[in-house]
Amino acid sequence: MWFRMKPITALFAIFALMFTTTTAIPTCPQWFEKDEGLYGVCLSPKALSYDEGWSYCCGLHASLCSLAQLDELYQLGARDYRWGLINDESRDARLTVCGQYLHTPGECYNNNFPNTPRPAPKNEVYCCKMTK
Fold this sequence. Notes:
By secondary structure, the chain is α+β, with helices and mostly antiparallel strands. The chain has one domain: Mannose-Binding Protein A, Chain A (Roll), CATH 3.10.100.10. 24% of the residues lie in helices and 21% in strands. Strands 2, 3, 5, 6, 7, 8 and 9 form a seven-stranded mixed beta sheet that branches. A two-stranded parallel ribbon has the order 1-4. The longest helix has 13 residues, at 7-19. It is globular, with a radius of gyration of 17 Å.
């Protein structure tokens, strides 16, 4: 038995696939960059403390990412399942859908991706750099 899809449904599915391009965030020193974005992002290859993360990113001529920078990159298709430290020492983030964090106040940034007030003492770090 073949599954039959209405033509309009098939058209919407094809359209959605054409314009939904997501890319995993590469390990530093490789960068996720989009021409229309202001920032590039990479994730450190190993777990670092907050202070080590700042030093690591500075060595790449970058800084720990802010939630606003990650949000722009998320909207451009950056995705990653790994939690990473950010420029706010009291939070971490992961560039996936909010899922269980959607209804937890303050843990779903702009209804896009989770960030929590429970960062691990050491974790990979999200480094961001200006590309323009």
